[in-house]
């Protein structure tokens, strides 16, 4: 019986892929009666996936911070400072900050399933730091090697490293290091203990310092920090002012901190250090005789023991040390040791290289030799932004926006949650949190590379859809993230939405898995027999080979997605009949705008109708809702909700119709927003730029509309409008708002939109070729090839020059602007390199 059902699922995939979706018949599934599918595959997939992604440098707001994907658990981080002077401690590194004077700070070879390498060039501390992160095969244990090399001319520099680990969560039934009821180990949420195994010694420790702990989710574990090879040097002082300040030793300090406070590790450290210095001053009367490498050693003056532990080291010249974490469940031969970590690093880096090279290979004119390192860093940096967040956030469900004045509004938040989120971030130093609009772009370069990982992130986001169908635009979960967002931006409102890019990705996943089954039916059939035998090595492409795992998830999530879609449309509905615009109601207006900004649109300060008016209709929003409709239609088709499918297909047609009827201006030869004048007559609001391209960018402009296509391509190619040598600018040079005010989306080049342009040029060149003139086809081809080269060349050049990729690029000079290490949707450059040279 079970066999038969699986067969039905597989044949459905083959079947829906082959027929034209408009004429599809639903004789396999009907909406109401749920087909039972054996869930063991989904379960097995989940288990493999959870283990493989359990640990990672998921505290991405730090230069280096490790945590597991468990709400309250063991949080670790690395900090450092220069100890040559009394002031250099001012450059104490912990959070990755935009303003820090770094030549580079990024993962250069990294994958969350494998591990990898981060490289940091700290130009204030005058050192290069290499951080290698490796994992055991079972995913439960890990190791880190920290290596620092002084810059030329600074060979004898003194550097202090501080490692901390803190266990969060509470568990009351621990007695003398044992659970009272060991059986309960996996059920009760919360932590056990985490303590120093070495004998406490206020004078410091020589050699390895060892800790052990137990907690739910982790079970029993050990953490060890060594003092590295004999070649390490410590500062040598003529005499020790105080026996507790020996820079040759590793110094330990521990204290108890409540949940949600381990992230303040640096502030706590600084406070302790101040206490210590104050105490030394009292004891010795003056501080002049303390060299900085002694003065800045933390002392264990309170003799506390708690859930947060620090280990501080003081080195001179180059240095190297390791931290290893072993779970008791990891088999002995899979454990990380100080002896095998070097070999593990080697295999980790070469595994990453082969996975990368399997999926990314630059096409002409970008040769592999020159662009491979760049490509690896882009993909690693994107993956290095993979984060796990847990905490509550602030929501205002009361405030109704004043739509008479469109004054800026002040939201008052109530706490909701806690929630968890597994997501990428736009920029570790500047935007280390989840953004709904960015996330779809983050996932695009990974669709081929690791579709299973894409699904995990999509799942995590969709889990956040609340009972009303809403997902907050920005995910500012917990006090750590809130500490980095100005107060007026912390509160989220259910009235405000954001471009639904995740839907685009989710439907791509479904389409890909479907195409895969159709293109390789033999394999699919073979896979059918072997389905239950996938294992860890297959992670990355399990859902592509076993689409029922994806179908299962899709069925579960469908009701929530539909709710999200309905909520999205109903909150953003625009006026149609009230302003004599016909009877087709598919027309929308971004809520929450002010006279200068529409944060909801994602294109914050892009010029819109002035004065703002409730009659406004936005072409980009209608396009996004078109994308959403298409995606959810595909999902409905897949899970067999025929009524929904029919209704969605009709909405889609109406959207396409209104993009033309309401938003195409024959006078301006472009797509525009719509509003009304003083006499309530409809007027187009045309600011040529990214917004004018939206029906084209989202492939909702009909392929037979070659006249429109030609007008848009002419605008794209015109240097007086959008064309520059570095990519397409956001707002036309001819617009009166070009380059004005804060100039965020009013001239700079943004890489996400440029990627969509390349993708659409490719699409229309192929799909419209039957109707397009030779000269139009030539223009499409030329725009594509030249734009691709301009973009990649400039991003590459700026990366060489600055050590980073950026949020935006200047449209006159190509220079990098905005947030740094923006990997982030600028990482779509990896896809651009992979795209064909010519179309
Ligand atoms: C799908 O997977 C989930 C989670 O693994 C399981 O609970 C559920 O029973 C499965 N559903 C079907 C229809 O197989
Ligand atoms: C995998 O992790 C998710 C999220 O933490 C959890 O809900 C799920 O139960 C886990 N599945 C398995 C099989 O362990």
TrEMBL record:
Where found?
A: Endoplasmic reticulum membrane
For this protein, the record's InterPro entries field holds: 6-hairpin_glycosidase_sf, 6hp_glycosidase-like_sf, Glyco_hydro_63_C, Glyco_hydro_63N, Glyco_hydro_63N_sf, Glycoside_hydrolase_63
Q: Name one GO cellular component term.
A: lumenal side of endoplasmic reticulum membrane
Q: Which GO terms describe its biological process?
A: dolichol-linked oligosaccharide biosynthetic process; fungal-type cell wall beta-glucan biosynthetic process; N-glycan processing; oligosaccharide metabolic process
Q: What class of enzyme is it?
A: hydrolase
The record's EC number reads 3.2.1.106
Summarize the protein's role.
Cleaves the distal alpha 1,2-linked glucose residue from the Glc(3)Man(9)GlcNAc(2) oligosaccharide precursor.
Q: What is this protein called?
A: Mannosyl-oligosaccharide glucosidase
Taxonomic source organism: Hyphopichia burtonii NRRL Y-1933
């Amino acid at each position: 019986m079970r066999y038969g059902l699986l067969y039905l699922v597989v044949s459905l995939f083959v079947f829906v892929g082959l027929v034209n979706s408009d004429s599809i018949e639903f004789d396999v599934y009907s909406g109401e009666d749920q087909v039972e599918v054996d869930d063991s595959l989904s379960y097995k997939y989940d288990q493999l996936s959870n283990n493989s992604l359990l640990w990672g440098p998921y505290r991405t707001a730090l230069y280096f911070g490790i945590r597991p994907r468990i709400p309250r658990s063991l949080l670790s981080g690395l900090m450092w400072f220069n100890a040559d002077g009394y002031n250099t401690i001012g450059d104490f590194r912990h959070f990755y900050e935009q303003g820090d004077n770094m030549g580079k700070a990024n993962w250069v070879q990294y994958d969350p399933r494998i591990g990898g390498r981060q490289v940091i060039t700290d130009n204030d501390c005058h050192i290069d730091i290499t951080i290698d992160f490796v994992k055991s095969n079972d995913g439960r244990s890990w190791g880190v090697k920290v290596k620092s090399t002084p810059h030329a001319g600074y060979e004898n520099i003194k550097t202090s490293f501080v490692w901390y680990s803190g266990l969060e969560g509470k568990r009351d039934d621990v007695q003398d290091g044992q659970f009272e009821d060991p059986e309960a180990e996996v059920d009760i949420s919360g932590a056990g203990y985490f303590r120093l195994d070495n004998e406490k010694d206020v004078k410091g420790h020589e050699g390895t310092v060892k800790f052990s702990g137990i907690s739910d989710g982790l079970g029993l574990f050990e953490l060890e920090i060594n003092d590295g090879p004999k070649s390490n040097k410590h500062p040598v002082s003529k005499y020790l002012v105080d026996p507790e300040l020996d820079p040759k030793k590793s110094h330990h300090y521990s204290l108890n901190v409540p949940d949600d406070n381990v992230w303040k590790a640096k502030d706590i450290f600084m406070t302790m250090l101040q206490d210590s210095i104050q105490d030394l001053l009292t004891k010795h009367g003056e501080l002049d005789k303390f060299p900085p490498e002694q003065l800045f050693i933390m002392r264990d003056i309170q003799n506390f023991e708690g859930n947060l532990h620090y280990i501080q080291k003081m080195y001179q010249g180059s240095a190297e040390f390791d931290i290893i974490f072993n779970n008791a469940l990891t088999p002995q031969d899979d454990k990380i040791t100080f002896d095998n970590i070097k070999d593990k690093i080697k295999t980790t880096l070469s595994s990453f290289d082969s996975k990368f090279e399997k999926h990314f290979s630059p096409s002409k004119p970008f040769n592999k030799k020159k662009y491979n390192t760049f490509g690896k860093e882009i993909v690693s940096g994107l993956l290095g932004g993979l984060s796990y967040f847990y905490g509550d956030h602030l929501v205002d469900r009361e405030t109704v926006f004043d739509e008479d004045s469109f004054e800026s509004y002040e939201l008052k938040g109530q706490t909701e949650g806690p929630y968890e989120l597994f997501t990428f971030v736009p920029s570790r130093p500047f935007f280390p949190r989840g953004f709904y609009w960015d996330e779809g772009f983050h996932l695009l370069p990974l669709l081929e590379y690791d579709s299973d990982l894409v699904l995990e992130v999509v799942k995590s986001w969709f889990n956040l859809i609340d009972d009303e169908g809403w997902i907050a635009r920005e995910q500012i979960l917990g006090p750590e993230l809130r500490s980095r967002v100005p107060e007026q931006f912390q509160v989220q409102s259910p009235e405000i939405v954001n471009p639904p890019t995740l839907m685009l990705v989710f439907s791509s996943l479904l389409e890909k898995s479907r195409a895969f089954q159709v293109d390789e039916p033999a394999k699919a059939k073979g896979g059918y027999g072997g389905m239950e035998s996938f294992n860890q090595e297959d992670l990355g492409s399990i859902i592509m080979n076993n689409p029922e795992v994806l179908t299962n998830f899709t069925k579960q999530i469908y009701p929530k997605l539909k709710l999200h879609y309905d909520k999205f449309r109903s909150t953003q509905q625009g006026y149609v009949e009230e302003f004599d615009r016909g009877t087709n109601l598919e027309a929308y207006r971004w809520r929450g705008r002010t006279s200068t900004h529409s944060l909801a649109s994602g294109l914050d300060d892009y010029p819109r109708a002035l004065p703002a008016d409730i009659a406004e209709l936005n072409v980009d929003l209608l396009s996004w809702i078109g994308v959403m409709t298409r995606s959810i239609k595909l999902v409905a088709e897949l899970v067999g909700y025929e009524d929904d499918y029919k209704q969605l297909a009709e909405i889609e047609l109406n959207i396409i119709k209104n993009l033309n009827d309401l938003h195409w201006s024959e006078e301006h030869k472009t797509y525009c927003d719509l509003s009304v004048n003083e006499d309530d007559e409809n007027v187009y609001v045309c600011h040529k730029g990214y917004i004018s391209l939206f029906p084209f960018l989202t492939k909702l402009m009909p392929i037979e509309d070659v006249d429109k296509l030609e007008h848009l391509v002419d605008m794209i190619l015109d240097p007086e409008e959008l064309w520059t040598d570095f990519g397409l600018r956001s707002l036309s040079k001819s617009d009166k708002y070009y380059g004005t005010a804060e100039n965020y989306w009013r001239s700079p080049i943004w890489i996400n939109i440029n990627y969509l342009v390349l993708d659409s040029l490719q699409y229309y060149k192929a799909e419209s070729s039957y109707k397009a003139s030779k000269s139009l086809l030539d223009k499409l081809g030329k725009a594509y090839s030249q734009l691709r080269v301009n973009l990649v060349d400039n991003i590459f050049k700026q990366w060489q020059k600055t050590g980073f990729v950026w949020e935006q690029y200047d449209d006159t000079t190509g220079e990098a602007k905005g947030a740094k290490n923006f990997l982030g949707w600028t990482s779509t450059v990896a896809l651009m390199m992979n795209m064909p040279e010519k179309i």
